[in-house]
């Protein structure tokens, strides 16, 4: 087994945690003047996270107050159990918005073994940062987390001073410049892969599968990931933005348009996002693309499969379930069909139960799920790693929010490896599907050039 040293260390840390002896976490918070979030995560020496939602919550975190990792098919439950222990007895002195949260995610496949470029990214890993800065509704809070109250207070003092010296504006940096790109999948190989999937669909083994490609981008210099996210915010203000960097290995980042799930108390919000067309240069052309997507029987079928599958997964856990009206989700370079979905849960549940139920939605996996996973495994020639998998946060109450890790890449030294995929259904044309995949590389690729 070729495991990286970083991953070995993570696994060792988690196995050293005695089953019932996670130290109690203590946190202290203080309101701040505004501060550059990029400057706080401007390190590669320490674990760091950044998270921003389309509705305005922004969080950055640094260091590790607690870490939970897991692997194998029951990794969602393992994380939940370990996190419950980690948060048990949490003493938080501050407002709810500034509470400690665990940030991280999962690999797409449960039997994932990390190798380059995914060194350091195991099958499931979450970190409660030692220092968190949260901005929400024009308030900014600093939170320090430790296992002793004196330590938390001292950390809060230290970081209050440090933060006061940082710039208030987020630097957007400059693009690193692209030297060359290398595809994992040539157009010929893609056509063959799509045709193989279509044969399986023809034989009724499969209804839909999302096939992906990766693009390795060699840069002129190392990328400033936080600056890149700031530039993505300007281009894609209605998308999530995230960055996850462990103290070893690369930095996974992206600007996904797709919410996997958010849960607050019993209220759940999710969505189906599938079906893609380009943006037009002129409003009429833009509208014509959107109309073509809305009227396409093939795209509606592909989208409908995602809605149905979310209903099948979520309805058994819900007291009320509602599918809202389909809309067009317009992003700077692409537009999608979107159906918002809301539910009220039937009882107390952890957001990770919902994440487990929903991952992977057929927007990134397929239908039926097992046959789609098998097809992805048999077909793709690269490691999806954390691409297209849940990335987000949860708190001590089991509330939280997760995006689907698409429109994403992993940065390692002077390379960024990008990932993008497309749903294949009966009638899919390999050349059209190829074009749509290229559109999905663009958000990050454009910011690297
Ligand atoms: C799998 C990706 O996009 C999904 C989300 C929106 C539209 C999609 C589509 O049209 O196929 C995909 O399901 C990706 O961006 O890599």
Automatic annotation (TrEMBL):
Its EC number is 5.4.4.2. The keyword Isomerase applies. Gene3D superfamilies: Anthranilate synthase (3.60.120.10). Belongs to the isochorismate synthase family. SUPFAM superfamilies: ADC synthase (SSF56322). The keyword Isomerase applies. One of its GO terms (molecular function) is isochorismate synthase activity. InterPro entries: ADC_synthase, Chorismate_C, IsoChor_synthase. Residues 187-440 form the Chorismate-utilising enzyme C-terminal domain. It comes from the Archaea. It comes from Natronorubrum halalkaliphilum. It holds the Pfam family Chorismate_bind. Coiled coil: none annotated. This is isochorismate synthase. Residues 1-11, 289-298 have a biased composition (Basic and acidic residues). Residues 1-28, 271-298 are annotated as: Disordered.
